[in-house]
Amino acid sequence: MNFLETIFSFLERDQDLPLVVEMHGDEAKPCTRGQLAQWVAHARGVLLESDVKPGDRVVLVAPNSAKWVAADLATLATGAVVVPMYARQDPKELVEMIADCQPALIIVADDTLAARLKDAGSTVAQRTFADLFDSERAPCEQAPWSWESDQAVTIIYTSGTSGVPKGVVLTCGNVDHMLPVTRNALIAMMGPRERADRVFHYLPFCFAGSRVVLWTCLFRGNPIHVSTNIDNLGAELAAAAPNYVLNVPMLLERIKNKVEEGILSRGAAISGLYRRARDGWMRTARGEARLGDALFIALGSTILFGSIKKKIGPNMDCLICGSAPLGEATQRWFEMLGIPVYQVYGLTETTAIVTMDVPPQVLPGRVGRAIDGVEMKISDEGELLVKGPNVFQGYWKRPDATDAAFLEGWFRTGDQVELQDGSLRIVGRVKNILVPTSGHNVAPEPIERQIVETIEGVEQAVLVGHGRASVGALVTGAFTDEALQEGIDRINEGLPHYRRVRTWRRASEPFTIENGLLTANRKLRRTVIEAHFVDTIEEMYA
Fold first, then answer.
1. Residues 462-487 pLDDT 10s
2. Helix 208-220 / helix 172-190 crossing angle, nearest 10 deg
3. Is the same domain home to 263 and 236?
4. Per-residue DSSP letters for 387-442?
5. Domain check: are 256 and 292 in the same one?
6. pTM greater than 0.90
7. Of the residues 53, 84, 141, 490, which has the maximum number of CB atoms within 10 A of its CB?
8. Which of 406, 430, 454 is the last residue of a domain?
9. Sign of the Cα pseudo-torsion (410, 412, 413, 416, in order)
10. Is the dihedral of CA 61, 63, 64, 70 positive or negative?
11. Domain ranges, residue 218
């Protein structure tokens, strides 16, 4: 059976069991397998009525919800290719991608989204969720479309961090390979269980990693708790009480910084104990333990660490982190609390995953080992090249871009890496390399992670300095100038002269999705940031 047939087999049995649970603040609204199956049948009827044919593209623009899942499954069951898009993205950008993929239909959550797309210039026919799931319409009774391995099931547009978004075409075979891999990895991470995992997900389903998380849950028949309001994430997370969550590094760094800020403001006794226990843990993890470290670690574990873990999540067995590499210090900090963090690395073009941490082979600061079926090698320039059944078919209607993405049959990831005993460390994006006037190559990501992880109060950092005399930094957060300068001085001590941060400025606003400085999955849009803060950067180098 292909992945879709497996998912539909779960919908047909034990129909009273919940499968998608929407979180609305502290209230959980479960959608059962039976309800989801009914929605899918009604939506398929509307798609057929709209003359959607196998192979057509159908754009799906909506926030995460049980109905998003039903619309996705219904479109696939009709034989159409799902093109999911981020509901909060600029409508003009959405319309450009819609025009590129030439869909037969657009599915939108509501009339408000439909109006936004029309106002931005879209002329493609639209159907809202109210149309799609109207119980008065006749449901489709036909068997789901039978997908062949080489047929495209989805087109996912890249985030556009360094250029115009391109449509990544993923096939049924890509997904069929990936889901058993992720299912088995989760079993290894979570251990044997007599009940379903409690899974909470807040990242948009329109991105490859999120889609794989969703499909993996459905493929296992395991319920997934879905955030419906990112602004109320704390309440939703607490109410869902999950065993694991897929995260991006920025959120984990923010949790760490906020927890430390609270503890360090509680007075000399508590803050002093915390500092000694934390520093002792980090030294011990590096094999540099000092006399007395074991005592303070034991005291910290007894008095502080357990209560911190309980506040983060009483049932939290582990955290999974993707989208970008997580720094070693942050990964070890969560381990200190008793919450292991497993890293996942991949791209949209590799069906979201190339490597994964699978216990017990976990090295903090690295992103795991190649998943089953994937081959890796490093080019002479240090770029990671991969092969495998997870690698995409090509970019939608962009043959030149597809050709450029491969080197003698190997997919070019664009990531500069180091490989040691099969374990991968991401150094940075090849295209992000800064070249100051000294002529040296500087990967910004490792230094940015150090600034965020080691300087109290720093929320975000982006390095600049391409074609300049030295490297500089734009930084956001609630920090003092003195603390930032002292922290940068400490970091510089361990760096060669050409990588040292010689100047910095406080950014006038944080980098957010809303102001266009982050992608929807919270990656830095570097060229946009540099253009946005051009006056600040010029002042930095004046």
1. 999 988 889 999 999 999 999 999 99
2. 70
3. no
4. ESTTS--EETT-HHHHHHTEETTEEEEEEEEEEETTEEEEEEEGGG-B--TT---B
5. yes
6. no
7. 84
8. 430
9. positive
10. negative
11. 3-243
